[in-house]
Amino acid sequence: MKKDQLVTMEFIKDAFSLFNETSEKLEQAYHKLESRASELCSGMNEKETREREIRLQAMGWMVTKIVHDIRNPLGSIELISSLLQKELTGDQDKQELLGHIIYGVKNIDTVLSNLLHFTSFPRPRFEPVNLRMIIDSSLEVVSYLINKKDINVSIYVAEDIDIYCDKALMRQVFLNLFLNSLHAMSDHGDISIEVIHNRDNGEIEISVQDTGCGIEQEDIDKIFDPFFTTNEKGSGLGLTIVHNIISAHNGTINAYSKSGEGSLFVINLPSQGG
Ligand SMILES: Nc1ncnc2c1ncn2[C@@H]1O[C@H](COP(=O)(O)OP(=O)(O)OP(=O)(O)O)[C@@H](O)[C@H]1O
Ligand SMILES: [Mg+2]
Questions:
Q1: Contact yes or no for 135/219 (Cβ under 8 A)
Q2: Is the Cα dihedral 6, 7, 10, 12 positive or negative?
């Protein structure tokens, strides 16, 4: 093997071990958070409410610290992997391997953002934002999985719609919905995103529909509950965060689904931020 190939392999090995280490840290942090949250919610009485608030605040600080510690090495992993991917244009196997790492890193970053939003109720910073731009940038994050699974994405945006919202929070909403749809589809399938501006009531309706596995009838009322998950590797926080973010924007979200027939999520938001 040539010297530069050896260096590349060393880089990939380093990136992998850093990645594993980071995933482990995240898993530990998540389990800690889950057990603390169930401890705090069980057997609560009025007298304990204040104490609970203080503990929740402390938990929020703990999560912020952990997320910060994990995000630093994560940034290096993504940077190294992206640089390597650019260098290895002729080597498809290694590019594929690096694609896995980059996608994994982005996935961990979404989980970290979910943890942050879960422990502190989102307070949107409203500004006029182009919805199409948020949708496109969220799709970009999951593009690796879209291509890998051969998913067809259609976007129908009635016009160039601007909305008063928090850009980063809305991105988090789309990311979670897209990731859920992608997880629900084993291979092939469609995701349709539709945005309609109802000028009569000033509302914007956003629908995200997929042709995935759908949701069992008995589960549909639980999907927005914290820690409800049917995914082996899921934390069950994604839709809770989505719901909290939409509520903080004075909007609503509803899910419609039948097992085996795909799912539809419909969000209604006031275009002026409410
Ligand atoms: N598009 C979808 N198709 C099928 N099931 C879905 C879909 N979206 C959500 N669900 C169901 O709702 C559950 C909760 O979703 P949620 O996003 O809150 O958690 P998760 O995806 O399991 O984990 P994570 O916290 O990593 O997002 C999922 O485990 C799945 O059972
Ligand atoms: Mg999810």
A1: no
A2: negative
In the three-class reduction of DSSP (H, G, I as helix; E, B as strand; rest coil), residue 233 is classed as coil
Per the document, the length of the chain is 274
Q: Nearest residue CA, atom 26 of ligand 1?
A: 234
Instruction: Provide the token pair at 255.
Output: 């899910």
Residue 184 Cα, ligand 2 centroid: separation in angstroms? 10
Residues with CB under 6 A from ligand 1: 111, 114, 176, 180-181, 184, 210, 212-215, 223, 228-231, 234-240, 263
Q: Which of 236, 268, 267, 249 is nearest to 118 (CA)?
A: 236
Which superfamily does 127-270 belong to?
Histidine kinase-like ATPase, C-terminal domain (3.30.565.10)
- Range(s) of the chain covered by CATH 3.30.565.10: 127-270
**How confident is the model over 43-83, as pLDDT tens digits?**
666 666 677 667 767 777 778 888 888 888 888 888 888 88
- Contact yes or no for 111/84 (Cβ under 8 A): no
Give me the residue label for tokens 């958070």: 33
Binned at pLDDT 50, 70 and 90, residue 151 comes out as: very high
The domain defined by 3-119 folds into Methane Monooxygenase Hydroxylase; Chain G, domain 1 (1.20.58)
